[in-house]
Amino acid sequence: MTAVEPLQGKGLQSVLEANRRINLWEGSVRSSKTVSSLVTWLKYVRTGPPGNLVMAGKTERTLKRNVVDVLEEWLGKKRCKAVWGDGELHLLGRRIYLAGANDEKAQEKIRGLTLAGAYVDEVSVLPESFWSMLLTRLSVDGAAVFGTTNPDSPVHWLMRDYLKRPAVHIRHDGTVARTDGPEVLDLARFSFNLRDNPHLSAAYIDALGREFTGLWRLRFVEGLWVVAEGAIYDSLEERTHRTPIEPDPADVEQYVVAVDYGTTNPFVALLLAVTAERVWVLREWRWDSKVRGRQLTDAEYSAHLTRWLAEVRLQLPDVRVEKTIVDPSAASFIAQLWRDAWPGVTGAKNDVADGIRITSSLFASNRLLIHPTCTGLWDELLGYVWDPKAADKGNEQPLKIADHGPDALRYGIMGLRAWWRHWIIAPTIEVEQQAA
Q1: Computed over its alpha carbons, how large is the radius of gyration of the chain?
Q2: pLDDT digit string (tens) for 25-73?
Q3: Mean pLDDT confidence for 2-17
Q4: CATH of 9-196 given 3.30.365.10, 3.40.50.300, 3.30.420.340, 2.40.160.60
Q5: How far apart are CA 147 and CA 161, in angstroms?
Q6: Which of 149, 236, 248, 260 is a good FRET partner for 10, with 20 to 30 A between their CA atoms?
């Protein structure tokens, strides 16, 4: 048996808050999320409702290495004994089924089971079908699932359908957000980074920060959900390009609204401002009919945008939109905006490669900044990647997944050509370092 240090900080806080149907620890490597989740699981095994329990991982080997071996070290083999031939773990007097889930057929291993609880190692690497089946099996009154995961793409199904909809979220900075509403799940989310592990030295953390750069550092050190390979905007940095600073209204030369239109796909509108040196994305509005449960008409979209701008002006009273740049394929919506007397309505320039090149150049020269309230846009930018199949054919084009915010941004940038033309050959400018 191995002595376990008492939990403290976010680890202890997560154990106290892990009382939801779904409880997920996510974040960087070596951040203590697994230890915190296992302490919670042991508590649940002892005090949770009677019935079948299951523990799952990508394979039985990874489940053994990441979880079962740790429990055996903590408790000894009298209280934690795996019988791999039977696919069972005897833990604190309870029998637990063990399952590897490395392909779509894995769901058959738990189909038909009635479960009182489950623990899942590295949820994001399991098939979505297995996770969905697992949730349907948790039918005992009071049943719950506990899981861990390292960050993946911000458009991964686990982030998109679950982690973005928590009732309780302990954020990376330690603050707690509690949410209610029809779209909120009975889910607790705990976001960890390296600094949440009190047993790691400052030298070790600093070394990793130097060894990993760009998007790799954001994922493995900061614990953020970003794409590390094939990223289109690979110079994107939260510290540099995401800022609560807003331009002085006296310096703004034009405000524009840029729209990527969608009915079954998400509809995204961005408010941009341009000054003598930068483009600022100040606010966003989006409607995802799949999440909201209904589609909107062109007239409803126009009315929603009008109300959104009115709400924005309560925070930014000097905003006066002079130009509305719209997805050129949305002819009926453009006509609706004309009827509703929206200012300067025009179809966007939709040269994808040129728009990406210019937007990338503005990010690289620190001339394009995004407000923290634009969370949907930011997540999609981090997940905006090149299509590998198109690349195999010699074509460069983005993967058409969760690209609606980036498209709206590209439309807005191309509509502001008169301002940024001379920036492209100008030097990079420094970004003021401000506390978020």
Answers
A1: 24
A2: 998 877 889 999 999 999 999 999 999 999 999 999 999 999 999 999 9
A3: 82
A4: 3.40.50.300
A5: 15
A6: 236
